[in-house]
Structure prediction request, 355 residues.
Amino acid sequence: MRTEPRGAVGHDLRHHGDAEVRDDGSALVDLAVNVRADTPPAWLREHIAASLTSLAGYPDGRAARAAVAARHGLPVERVLLTAGAAEAFVLVARALKVRRPVVVHPQFTEPEAALRDAGHTVDRVLLREADGFRLDPAVVPEDADLVVIGNPTNPTSVLHPATDVARLARPGRTLVVDEAFMDAVPEEREALAGRTDVPGLVVLRSLTKTWGLAGLRIGYVLAGPETVAELERAQPLWPVSTPALAAAEACVGARGLAEAADAAGRVAADRAYLVAGLREFGARGLWVVEPAEGPFVLVRLPGGAVVRQRLRAAGYAVRRGDTFPGLGEDWLRLAVRDRRTTDGFLAALGRVLAA
Prediction:
C-alpha cells in the first residue's frame, strides 16, 4: 500500500459505468452498470406508482425514516434519507469540518470528487494488487480526520472484515463506510450498519443497486445524532421525493428484505459461475481479483483497453478501470448477470482474445 501526494488527481473521477451504455452504447449488453438486471420488480413498481396520487402534497419522510431505523435497530435520530448515496457524499464533503481527508482506493470515485469540489485537498491510500487490494488499517495516516472506504469495495469486489474497517475509527475522526453493495452480500457479512459502538462511524447505504432504482435516487445515512443533524442542515427542504420515500419504506420492509436476501444468494451463484468461466482465460493473461463478494468482478488482462473496445464491437459493454486511482488501462470491471448472459459474454471474450 502507498499514499499518494496531497492534491494528486490524474483520473477522471466523474466517469461512471452508465457512460458505457449511453448513446451509441444503448443497444449493447450491459455489463458496465452495477444495477441488478430485471429490476425493479413488479410489486415495487406498483407500490411506487400508488404514491403518485400524493404528488400534490410535499414529501413527508417520517414513515420511511422510521422504517429504515427499524430495519437497522436504530432510533430515527441516527437516520438521514438522501437522494441516493451520491447526495450523501456531497453532504459529508460540505457539511462536516474536515482538515485532512483520506480516501482509500481503488474505490468508487464520487466521494473524492465531492471532497475536491468542496475545496478539500484529498490524500489517497492505494491498496495494492499484490495484497489482493485488502485493507491494512495501519497504513491510513494517523492524523486523518476523515477516512472513506467502500465495503464491499467498488470496483475490486473485496469485502473487508468489519473488524479491520472498525480499526480505522478513533476519537476525532469521521469514518465513512460506503455499504452501497452490502445488501448484495449474503447475510450482509461484515456490515457495520446498525453499529453504535464505533466512534465517528458514518455508514452510507443505497437502494438503487439491488432494486434498480438509479433513476429514482434513494439512499440513506446511518450516523450519530449530531452528525445526522449537521448533514440534514446542509440539505435543501424536501430532498427526497414522495415516490422515492415510498420505495424506501417498501425496500426495507419484510417483503423487501426477504427478496433482497434471495437475490444476494442468486448473485453469489451467478458470480461464481462468471469467475469460473473467466479463470479459463488465465493462460491468456487474464487475472480475476478473488475472492469477489460484490455483484461485479474486477479483472486484469494485457491490452485491456483494446479488449474493451473489441467487446463493444461484439455487442458487450464493460466498465473501464483506468478512471479508478490505483488501476490502469489493463483493468476492467464486469457486472454479474444471469448465466445465459454470462455464456454469451464469455464466448465473445474468447473470440476477442483469439483475434
